[in-house]
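Recap for those who missed Tuesday's class. We walked through two folding examples back to back. For each one, the amino acid string is listed first and its predicted structure tokens come directly after. Nothing is annotated here on purpose, so try labeling regions yourself before you check the end of the notes.
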Amino acid sequence: MPVDAALRAFVAIVGGFYITEKRAKHAQRQMETALQNGQPDAGTVRQYFETMDRYFSGFEAEARGHLRAVDRRLENVNQMHFNLAAERAVAVKRIELTQNVLGQLKGLASSERLLK
């Protein structure tokens, strides 16, 4: 009986990962060997699927946690950016207003008729 192409492709995809967990590494080697020797039995396939589900589910949970942490940090950065932009706008407005006052003051002070 020929080996299922989808199973062979899946095992190749998993084989591309650097697996560090002993149980998952063993299951991967066992499945690769079973595929080389022909069609693996249902028990081997089931055990392989369970092991890989457990292994990759842990990584997914870790990655989701990391994503949540990064999203929180991005929210903080965005809020800080918004606040700084608002502060900058206030500072620019203050400069405009004080320049107006200083300009009028200079004009009035240079007027000799007011100083007599």
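Example two. Treat it independently of the first, because the proteins are unrelated.
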Amino acid sequence: MWVLLLTAGAWSQEFRAMWVDAFHPGFKTPAEVSQLIAEARAGRFNAVIVEVRKRGDAYYNSNFEPKPADVSPPSFDPLADLIAKAHDTNTGPRIEVHAWLVTYPIWNNQDTNAAPPGHPVRLHPDWLTQNTAGQTWASGNYVFDPGHPEVQRHTFNVAMDIVTRYDIDGLNFDYIRYLGSTWGYNPVAVARFNARYGR
């Protein structure tokens, strides 16, 4: 009986989270962050899962990827402001902040020159996945190839940049998959596969 009571106590806190995507307004200005946290508290949510990496960009002060143009003012750090306001118990219950990272889709415009300077799709077009026909544009996105070791290193660096510099409560990786069975044919990934399996 005592063990059952301990177990029940450990699960008494519900996880009531809001997903907040970066394709719409919600946390790109100080006023939006304040409104988001106020609405989360009013709705009795205890966590927000915020898309801080949409397509090779950073809704925080990144050491690896550029900040999107829709952050205002440009010096604003949305993730830092979210954490400060969500964790501030003087204004209401503490709210967890989970950083949501879109992992492999890297750019959603067929014109890669439209990407800002320093954007990964401009710096590393050789990291893009390819299909069996050698195409790199897929379903409205350019996507990095999971089989390329530099892609893995970059993904690791992006994640560690966040977890070592921001007091987040969780990290959520999204789109950590291949596009389908006809994708994953980046020349480096294919060479690694062939070397491993003797082809």
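Answers for example two:
The beta strands are 17-20, 47-53, 96-102, 105-107, 137-138, 141-143, 170-174.
Helices lie at 2-10, 30-42, 78-87, 120-123, 149-165, 187-197.
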